[in-house]
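Q: Could you predict the 3D structure of Flavoprotein, HI0933 family?
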Amino acid sequence: MKIAIIGAGAAGIMACITAKRLNKNLQIDLFDANKGIGKKILASGNGRCNISNSSITSKNYIGENPDFVNFALKEFDFKAFEKFCKSVGLLLDVKESCKVYPLSNEAKSVTNLLELALNELGVNIYLESFIRDIEKVDEKFNIKLDETEYKGYDKVLISNGLGAAPQLNANESGLEFASKFGHTYNSTYPSLVGLKTDNTYNGKLQGVKKECNVILFVNNNLEQEIFGDVLFTSYGVSGFAILDISQLAVLNLSSYQDVKIAINFFPKINKNDLADQIQSLLKTVPNQRVVDILTGMVSNKIAPVLLDICKINIDTKANEINAKQIKAIAYQLNSWKMKIVDTQGFGHAEASGGGVRTIEVDNRTYESKLVKNLYFAGEVLDIVGNRGGFNLHFAWASGYLVGKSLVK
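A: Sure. Here are the predicted C-alpha cells for Flavoprotein, HI0933 family:
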C-alpha cells in the first residue's frame, strides 16, 4: 500500500511512525515545504518546545464542536504520549503547571529524534516540496508539485496546518485541497495572538508590563476572566493573559461581534478600598503633583495617561484633587477598558482557529466522511487549543489515530 502524507509537523510525523510500526511494508512518502521537519515544533515554547500538557480535556479546545477531540484524547492521553516519547528516546520534563517540555530543554532534540525514527522506519521524506494539487483518479491519488508528479497513492493525509506563522511556510493550501474534494471549512483566524486596540495612547504605554486580571466582554456580556501578564505595546496589548484571552476574543471578532477587554491592575483590591489607599497616599505629600505620587503604585508611563483619561490636569497637586476624581482614578485602575479592533495577524499567531469542519470527518479514524481514503489531522481541522502544549498534543493524538487507520 502506498500512502502520501502532506505536512511534516507533529500530526504528519506521528501518523508516519505509528503506521510504519504497525506495517513495515507500507510505502509512506512524507512531503513538507520546509528544509527540515517539524518547524512549528521547533518554534513552540520559545524554542524550548512546550510539547504537550499532562492535564487535558475537551475544555482546553474551541471550535465548532470541541467534543470532537474526546476520542483522540482518550485513545492517546498523556501517558500514551509519554510512552511514545520513550520509544524514540525522548525523555520529558513535566512542570507543576502541567506543561511538558523535553528534558533536554531544547526543541531541536525533539525533531532530531523524530527524524531518526522516520529514517529508521524507511519513511521517504521529501523536503522543500510545495504541493500544488491533489487529485483522485480511479481510486488512486496523485500529488502534483511544481515540476514533479507522484502518482498512485492509495491513501492521503492532509496535515499541513493553516496560516499561523507564514514565515515557516505555513499556508492554507490544505483548505484548498479539502474544498476540491467537497469539504467545507469555517473561516480561519489568528489565535494565541496580540490584540490591537483603538486607543490613541497605545504608543505612550509601550513596554509597560504587569500581572493583571483581564476580563473579556462580547456585546457587553462578560465572557471570560484570566489572570496573568499583560504587556502594553505600540499596537495594543500582548502578554500571556492576552494571548490566552485572545482565543475567544478573536473568534468573536471574526464574526463581527463587539469585543472589549477590561484590565484590572489591582485585582486583589476593590475600587473603594483602592480609592481609600490613593486618598491616604495623596495626604502624605499634599504639595506634590498627583502624577508623580501615582508612580509609587503604577508605572510612570501609566500615570499621565491615567490622569488624561480621568480628565485631570497633569499639574494638579495632591491637595487640589477631590474625592470624585480619586474615585475616577480607582475605577479606571480597576477597569481599564479597551475596544479590540484587530489582531497582530497570522505572522505573530501561535495557532490558527477555524479550518475543515469536523462534522465532515470521522472522530475515530480522522478519515473524510465524503471521500474514501482521504484523511485530515492537526491544525487544518476546526480545532484550536489553549496555550500550554494543547495544540501540539491534539496534533500528536489525531496523527496517532490516523496512523492506526492508514494500515487498515
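Q: Anything worth pointing out?
A: The first strand starts at residue 2 and ends at 6.
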